[in-house]
Amino acid sequence: MTKTKTLVKALAFATASTVATTAAGIAGAATQGVSDTEVVVGSLNDLSGPFAAFGAPATKAAQLYFDEINAAGGIHGRTIRFVVEDHGYQVPKAVQGVNKLVNRDKVFSMLLSLGTPHNIAAFKVLDKKGIPNVNPLTGARQMVQDPIKYKFAGTASYYDAVRATIGYMVENEGSKNICAMYIPSDFGKEIQLAAIDEAAERSLEFKAETTHKPDESDYVGALGKLKEAGCDTIAIALSVRGAITAIATAKKIGWTDAKFVGSSASFHTAIAKVPGGVTEGFFAGAGWQDLASRATEPEAAAWIKSYTEATGEKFPGTGALLGRSAAEIFVKALEAAGTDLTNDSFVAAMESLDFEDKIAGNRVSVGEDHIVSNEVFISKIVDGNWQVVGTR
Amino acid sequence: MDPFQLLVGGIANGCIYGLVALGFVLIYKATEAVNFAQGDLMMLGAFVTMTFVNQEWWDFPFIPGFILAMLVMGVFSYLLEFVIIRRLFGQPQFAVVILTIALGFILRFIAGAIWGHDPQSLEFPLAGESFHIGSIVVGYDEAFVILVTAVLTSLLYLFFARTRLGIAMQASSQNQLAAYYMGIPVKRISSLIWALSGMTASVAGVLFAAKGAIDPSTGLLGIKAFAAAVIGGFGSLPGALAGGLIIGIIEPMAQFFAPSGYSQIAPYAVMLLVLILRPNGLFSQVFQKKV
Q1: Cβ–Cβ contacts within 10 Å for residue A254, how many?
Q2: Measured between CA atoms, how close is A248 to chain B, in angstroms?
């Protein structure tokens, strides 16, 4: 009995000591990833998988912008160290990556992380430590799911953008029979649901759907199925290469009157530039405007010049545009947060942002919904370029 | 929709899988190792051709550019074997497997660094054009794929059956030691097999690029071609082509007839079925080695 009491006392003492030490540690600890001279920023990205067309140039453009900022002395004396982990669009690798970024690299914030299921998986680690997740490269509504405090979605969601675009198609292009081709992940389901909901709201029938793998390369059977079902407008949630192949295949099998609608994940320069006009007439709804039509505006022209000189590329693509835009938003938030940079001061700074983003061509106005820019631009490929045909 | 329409697309895709599978089998027969970078050699071949042919790069006429890219890929693959793979001669097979998986990552990285990650299109002279056979629409690109595959496999058949080098390669693939004792330069043959495999992969890459777009992750298609090689029987060249065609045809059929969501597993379900019913593949060539 005495032995038991002694053991209980010892355990109670040990527990109390541990709790007290931990609490004291938290109270006295500096903000993770922030020192007097440096801020560490992490990104989980696709540099080698099916969405590398977005991830690789986005992180490159962000890094180039941070290099400029660092060369000019950083923000409040702190340089930005940008650590990117490649997940190749695989969720298990994304989980490994976020654990490494948070626990080894001790990042202050995440920026531009790509992929809906990948970000959702990362939230389990980020939420526990209250690490901000800024402008992820996905338009899923879950990017501002509860707890919302440290989450900031870059643009209007896939769901809102695709609903707006299908609405436009019904009103202006005579769409009646709505269908969907999608990757059955959280990303694809958002777009499928948008198509179903918009069709229902307009008392139209959602005719049929097909599901696909991210690296799929053959769509003949799927398109045959949708054609047979009487679809006239198809919402697609595929990889960039998948979208090109699907649209090209539809034309090849003689289905030339099919109208394809994409989300921001398909709003990509590479799709507009396919030779032979294969992708002409493709629509996409996204939270920003294509750069080519704004290339002569002074801010855009200055960035295009510095980007092309630094990379040797002929013109910055969509991924680069998103990376550069997000990096500037992040830097403006760091500036607004002041010298005493904590997670909470950063959140307050993000919420205070309100300016015209000359790179993305949208208005940054972060409110309590934590959506950085809420506009939707509906664009169509005309003569090899994206052209804005409607806004919401 | 006319099932023959599905068949045309399926055969064209199947030819591409079949050519990549041929590369797998060539190397396996010669070295008893599996080259998991075969899909990435295909991707690289497509990018090299694009560099020669596209207007924004070197702007060569299509056919000379295509042949030049094949030769470049042949030399590249020869050197790959000569400089890297040969160092593992005599090592367990899994060492080569791991090495080729790593090579695949490296090739994807290099392609991304040189050509970027945006999907890019090969300037194929017949892109987007098609002709009709009754109610069936046949893309010129699909006809090109089928024609080139037929010509290439015929040439490969003649090469292996009629030429000294081809027969030496066959001998080397059946029994390296016996071939060596018969005076066949086994190591050089191995390099040449890699060169041939690289050239075949580059043809597959061009055919793939002619049908859509390419990016550095295109090489992941190699997994499907691997399934094709397994279905055909890993040691059989006609089997590899047949396996490719089976997968190519099953894919659109499953997409069309099977419920959404189930079609993606169809090629692998067939592979599983073949492995259960005919563990050595449909066109197996099983030899027992006696010691």
Answers
A1: 15
A2: 7
